[in-house]
Amino acid sequence: MRVLAVVVMDDMPVFEVAIPCQMFGTPPLGHEGPWYDMRICAEGGPRHVPMRGSSGHHDLPGMFGVHATHGLDALRDADTVIVPATADVNRDPSDALLTALRDAHERGARIVSLCSGGFVLAAAGLLDGRASAVHWKHAETLARRFPRVPVDPSVLYHDHGDLLTGAGNTAGIDLCLHLIRHDLGSEAATAVARHMVVPPHRSGGQAQYVDVPIPRAHRDDGLGPVLDWAVERLHDPLTVADLAARAGLTVRTLHRRFHAELGATPLRWLLTQRVLRARELLERTDLPIDAVAVRCGLGSAPNLRAHFSREMGVSPSEYRRAHRARGTAGASAPEILDADVPGTLDSDATGLVDSDATGLVDADATGILDAGAAGVVQAGAAGIVAA
C-alpha cells in the first residue's frame, strides 16, 4: 500500500485540501487491488487545523477545519507528499515544514503541489530550475518571489517525476487523477473520475482557461459529437480535414474551436487520445506492441514507442511491465477490441497526418509540425510541436 501524506497548515483554503482527501481517501466503488494509506499531516499534529473557504474569502471564525491525524514526522516514510496550498503566498511556512519536505524529497519521496502549494515547494528550494505550474493569478507573485523558478501559468500541471506542480482549483483534480493513473492504471483513474463526475483525463499541457467563459447548454452544440466520433475511430488514420468535415467546419475554424473549447490543437488532442488508448491496451491486454500501435492509430511499433515515450517518459514495454508488476491483470484482447478494426495500416501512417497542408510532415511521417507553430522538425524526428 502506498503511503500518501497530505500536508495541511492553519488558514489554508479548504477546497484544495478536500481534493486529495476525496480522491485518495477511499478506493472507488468496485475497485479491487492496492490503494493508498492516506495521512493528514500538520506541524504539531495530531490536532485540529482551522481553514478558510478559499484564498479570496473571509470566513466566520471556526467555519472550516480539518483534523490532522499525524505530525510532520509521518513524512519520513511517505511515498508521496502533497502540499495542497499555502495560507499566504507572501509569507514562507515554518522552517520545520520546509526541512521535512527537503528531507522527504532527498529520501526519494514524490513531492506534489496543488495551486499555491507551489510557493511552499519553492520556499524549500525544490523548484529551482524546474518548470512549475501554478494558478495563473499567482504566477507573477511566484516569479517575483522566487526568480530561480521557471513559472509556467499556461498549463494545468507539470510532471518531473520526483516533483509535480499543478494549477488551481479543478486542475488539482486533473493532477490527482494523473497520479492515480500513473500508480494504479487507467481503469482506477477512470473509476475515480466517474465517481466525481469529471473528465477522466486532461493533459497537463492543456491551457488553464479557454476563450469560452460559459459551458454550452447542449453537447450537440459544441465539439462533443465530433470528439465522440473520433474516439470511436482512433484506429483509423484520421486527419484534421476529417475532423473538420465531420464537424461541418473549415480547417481554420476547427482550429479556432479546439483552442476555444479545449485549449489544444486538433493534432494534440488526437495524440493524447491515442496515447490514452495505447495505455489502456497495454494495461488490459497481451497484444503485441505492433498490434497496440495499429489499434490506437499510431500505425507502427517505432512510431508508438516514439510518441509514447515522449508523452509518458517510458517505453510501451516498460509501461506494461510496471503495471503488471503492480498487479494489473491482463484481459483477453476480444473483451475490449472491435472486430472491425483493420489489422494493418500503411507503413508510414501515424494517424496524425494533416492531409490538407495545414501542417508539415517529415519524410517518414513520424514527426509533425502543427500549422502556425514556431519551430523546426528535422527529417525523421519523432515528435510534435503544437501551435
UniProtKB/TrEMBL annotation:
Matches recorded under InterPro entries: Class_I_gatase-like, DJ-1/PfpI, Homeodomain-like_sf, HTH_AraC, HTH_AraC-typ_CS, INH-QAR
TM spans (from-to): none
Keyword line: DNA-binding, Transcription, Transcription regulation
Pfam family, one: HTH_18
The HTH araC/xylS-type domain, residue ranges: 224-322
Protein name listed in UniProt: GlxA family transcriptional regulator
